């Protein structure tokens, strides 16, 4: 199936991590041009090497998404190399878990800053070009945690905020041919997850409590992002797609 994104440019934040790289690889298979934006230069080099080895047209850009100037410079590089940004995947984010009474203020702020301020800076940087071209796809990586998880008040608040951001952005930008949607993954099996001491317990719990009786894979999320980034999804905007295997 042709997703209609050949030669489109996709800018992926947190693109050198497990999930971001899976998204990049999926979009590259559709012959999109890839910009890996990440704060970790060593990880960027690794991701770029993997993608180039798979035949992708790829650019690596180091940027802290909480910095307007660094994001602006990275987007400018993408525009110079590929002529613009057509697809933005706001994937940068992380968890720093603790019960609220024990949570450090800096951990509260860091999680909100990367998730929300990052999406703000990146979206604002690419929107003028998308508006001019009358085409754009913005996909924000939220989480099932937006419904609330104990020990994750910062993460849950950030992801819930990202969904509100997505809805508002969709209402603002639809008249320019731009869609904005969120993807809310459930528990995804990543290398970090598989290193957890309770990984087998989590896997068994997933088999028992999830209609699709397994943990998710990064490719499950990547496939959903690819569809929302495609021309096939041009009449879908402001939505949150839960990639949870049916777990509510």
TrEMBL record:
Origin: domain of life: Bacteria
SUPFAM superfamilies: NAD(P)-binding Rossmann-fold domains
Name the UniProt record assigns to this protein: 3-oxoacyl-ACP reductase FabG
PANTHER family: 3-OXOACYL-(ACYL-CARRIER-PROTEIN) REDUCTASE (PTHR42879), 3-OXOACYL-[ACYL-CARRIER-PROTEIN] REDUCTASE FABG (PTHR42879:SF2)
Record gene name: fabG_1
One Pfam family of this chain: adh_short_C2
Protein family: Belongs to the short-chain dehydrogenases/reductases (SDR) family.
InterPro entries named in the record: KR_dom (IPR057326), NAD(P)-bd_dom_sf (IPR036291), Sc_DH/Rdtase_CS (IPR020904), SDR (IPR050259), SDR_fam (IPR002347)
UniProt cross-references to NCBIfam families, sorted A to Z: PRK12826.1-2 (NF009466)
Domain Ketoreductase as annotated: residue spans: 8-186
